[in-house]
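Inputs:
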Amino acid sequence: MPAKEKFTLFHFINYAVFAVITLICVFPFYYLFINTISNNDLSSRGLVMFYPKDLHFTNYLDVFKIPGLGQAALMSAGRTVIGTILTVAASAFLGYLFTKQMWGRKFWYRFLVITMYFNAGLIPWYLTMLNLGLTNNFAAYILPFIVQPFFIILVKTFVESTPIALQESAQIDGAGYFKVFTSIIFPLITPILATIAIFSSVTQWNSFTDTLFLVTDQKLFTLQFILYRYMNEATSIAQLMKQSSGSMDLDLANMATPTSIRTTVSMVVVLPILLVYPFFQRFFVKGIMIGAVKG
Amino acid sequence: MDIHTASKPAAARPPKRFQNNDKYHLFLMALPFLILAFLFSYLPLYGWIYAFYDYRPGIPLSASEFMGLDWFTSMVSNEVQRQEVLRVLRNTFAISSLNIATSVLPVIFAVFLVELRSTRFKKIVQTLTTLPNFISWVLVYSFAFMLFSVDNGFLNNLLLDLGWIDRPLNLLASDDHTWMAMTLWSVWKGLGWGAIMYIAAITGIDQEIYEAARVDGAGRFRLMWHVTVPGIMPTFFVLLLLSIGNFINNGMEQFYVFQNAMNTNHIEVLDLYVYNIGMTNSNFGFATAVSMLKSLVSLFLLFIANTMSKVIRGDSIF
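Outputs:
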């Protein structure tokens, strides 16, 4: 676009429209946040609309009194960390292997890629998981996520773009395939692995349906899942917390309300994403562009 | 790109063990992962067998009654069942069509975004509009609840304050415009994210084309329409074909979290329906039959999309 151009009506409208769109995208986050730090009584009556009123942060301390929340946070964090590490490692290694003359390379590559476009359906999948003993089992959060064809394509494309001479010289020095992978390839492909780590951790953190399908054991509930339950049960939880704190709690205005529980738990769920988002943003643009290239 | 085709003097070739039979060695290293893929993506295909039995959880398949094609025929022969299936198909088609119709929005978003002159503003817009893509549908529902709830939701309180309404609207627990509401949420969540690819495609357009068009006297809108838009059409087309391939796969998470007693009639898409009859009502046989048909139809649609791509673009999408 030419730099020297008058600021016309077109520009004005364009800026205004994008400002409004951006506002619509951000407002729910903001609205939720100001409601968690405002007077709980006002907030539950919907009177905190555009700015916080009677600032306080007790909700963020109280939220950990909710039975099961700490455990759920642990589950979510655990599956995110373990799942991401394994997915990244597997994608890196498989992506590398598929650039080598493996036995039946083409066939096995297709074998994996097809699974991106085809699945047997929910019930057969559920019954398979049941038969594999992966209901009410933490491994159900990890194992199905390890092999991700899309990520493998990303790595394979990336490895193919790195100079082959590096691998060859290491091999001349007597390095085996695994050694070449760990000492040559792995450091080279860290940019794409960062992208994969981001996508994978967001998927893991946000995952909700697998808990819904496979888990009835409360110990294995994730944050997303209990947030969903709180949406419907917040009233009874507030009651419970009121009883447990009893008459000791004189701060009536900021006692836990269904609204305060809903909003605060939501903030706890979204906070990790908001915190890392500014840093990972530059990675996913790169990732989606490589992904756009046909695998 | 492998070491075998690299032409090098014989002396500099890698040691022998790299040239011979380590293709099996490589395969063995990949094997554990291939087994995982088999377990979670191929083994479930065996579960299609449940579509031919009256399977009840806890009873082994061998003791279950063989139904033949009864589950499949009941979809059309049983009047109640047929109405159900038609209703669900109508929802699926409506919501998918609306999603395809709104898939031009990210294109428009991208085309106008690059017209913004302040790089800073552009960056801020891009960052903040992409954010909703990274939150779960559960959280979206939580937002929806806070903003549109009938008791003391943001919108109701705002409209009451302004005096535009005198009774709160129950937007979430209502079956009016359910399809539209679901589409709007999808747009809210996916608009900024969807535009990223188009923005990148626009940056890839040769600046000389713009120059040439400008010399020929083209104004802003003509440049947008005759240079920018054609520049991103190939990208749009591929994504459009992919969405045709995914026409009956709406996913269930969004619809599950927004589902309530009021809107079930219009929100139940195929994926949610399979969940509701299979997991909630434990009607595994019928749910598997529906799942199975869905998988086959969706494979067929993908095949059509791919063929269309080959005919029109001269290249397959996969």
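Remarks. Chain A has two domains: 9-66+222-292, 69-218. Chain A touches chain B through 98 residues (CB under 8 Å).
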